[in-house]
Prior knowledge:
One of its GO terms (biological process) is galactose metabolic process. One of its GO terms (molecular function) is UDP-glucose 4-epimerase activity. It catalyses: UDP-alpha-D-glucose = UDP-alpha-D-galactose. It comes from Pleomassaria siparia CBS 279.74. There is one protein chain. By secondary structure, this protein is of the alpha/beta class. The chain is built from twelve helices and 14 strands. Strands 3-2-1-4-5-6-11 form a seven-stranded parallel β-sheet, sandwiched between helices. A three-stranded mixed β-sheet has the order 12-9-14. The longest helix is centred in the middle third of the chain and has 26 residues, at 155-180. It binds nicotinamide-adenine-dinucleotide and UDP-4-deoxy-4-formamido-beta-L-arabinopyranose (WQD). Nicotinamide-adenine-dinucleotide (NAD) binds next to α1, α5, β5 and β7.
Amino acid sequence: MVVGSVLVTGGTGYIGSFTALALLDADYKVVIVDNLYNSSKEVINRIELLSGKRPSFYELDITDQAALDKVFEEHPDIDNVIHFAALKAVGESAVIPLEYYRVNVYGSISLLTSMKKHNVGNIVFSSSATVYGDATRFPNMIPIPEHCPIGPNNTYGRTKSTVESLITDFISSERGNANKAGKSGEQWNGALLRYFNPAGAHPSGIMGENPLGVPNNLLPLLAQVAIGKREKLLVFGDDYKSKDGTAIRDYIHVLDLARGHLQALNYLREHQPGVKAWNLGSGRGSTVFDMIKAFSHAVGRDLPYQVAERRQGDVLDLTANPTLANKELNWKTELTLEDACTDLWKWTEHNPEGYNQEPPKEFLDA
Ligand code: NAD
Ligand code: WQD
């Protein structure tokens, strides 16, 4: 029995692909749209291998509203959207800000316009912990609760906080318009999910993060060191006020994160709350040195690193207070950092070319 239909933008990307899998496993119908800017179509095969179900796929750009309209017309049963499609590299966003605003903000306007036209009311949005900026500028805001004032300190983060406002204003106006027309407007709802640091891969070893080009994040870079694609990891600063001098982040297994989307969508459908923001994090902070140690343990040998200057824009501590999601979404992380490292290593070791190679046969037979 199909419980609902979900349009997943950016669904061939890292977090989108795991969420598509979680949705299919929960008996949602899934329609993916993605322009494959940072992903591969092969992911559709992997999702099918793991779930036994094949999502529909459309290669399109979310800024192309006519193309989005066509998808809604071909799938009139779509009643929810999970919106991942975006550009996400913090450093690059300072270099090509117009492109970041075009894809992330204008792309979201295009999507919301199409949703309005087709009367689709629930949207779950990929926001980011980066919207908080440096929460240590306030007393008692670490671990970070949702009521911490937002203040992104980079262009990418500002596109995310802008889209949070966009969705909030859009849903509020749709509810208002419905009320004026004597209707409830309860069908219009938004979940702003502020993820902390996603990590890990599928424990089967056939699905994982497959960034095209140079990765930006700590664990994918460490994985490249482990398979010899990179000589060493540069540790960006060891003079932070932490136990070992390196910066603290809240790493969350991508399977837990994907389940968070499912729970958030179910919450919107059951409670019609309007727009709400939730942190998706573990509540546990780990330093860069903790991560090097954990991933080295998974690999079974020490990985080379060198301490370098701080990276511009980095903050000391981004650890979530996930209490709200724990209570309201009935969601909490179940997998550990160690699980994320083990799964990432399995994926990396057996798929050095990511999705540009056949899935390892031993895992298919398992
Ligand atoms: P990803 O790059 O793997 O996935 C994004 C997908 O969007 C890609 O498949 C890409 O091809 C697609 N895309 C980009 N521009 C598009 C366009 N114009 N039209 C259609 N598709 C387009 O990234 P991810 O890590 O899976 O991130 C997913 C979402 O989560 C993004 O919105 C990102 O900003 C957000 N997020 C990511 C992290 C993280 O560390 N990975 C943390 C917080 C928030
Ligand atoms: C983690 C820690 C680095 C690389 C970014 C975005 C955030 C979200 C997740 C999208 C930091 C250190 C890293 C390296 C290092 N993405 N590091 N050497 O910066 O916490 O968050 O990705 O929304 O918005 O800002 O993640 O993985 O880049 O870094 O020492 O080669 O690892 O300084 O302390 P970050 P990250």
